[in-house]
Amino acid sequence: MAAGFKTVEPLEYYRRFLKENCRPDGRELGEFRATTVNVGSIGTADGSALVKLGNTAVICGVKAELAVPPPDAPDKGYVVPNVDLPPLCSSRFRPGPPGEEAQAASQFIADVVENSQAVRREDLCIAPGKLAWVLYCDLICLDYDGNVLDACTFALLAALNNVQLPEVTINEETALAEVNLRKKRYLTIRTHPVATSFAVFDDTLLVVDPTGEEERLATGALTVVTDEAGRLCCLHKPGGSGLTGAKLQDCMSRAVTRHKEVKKLMDEVMKSVKPK
Question: ∠186-191-194 over CA atoms, to 5°?
Answer without folding.
Answer: 110
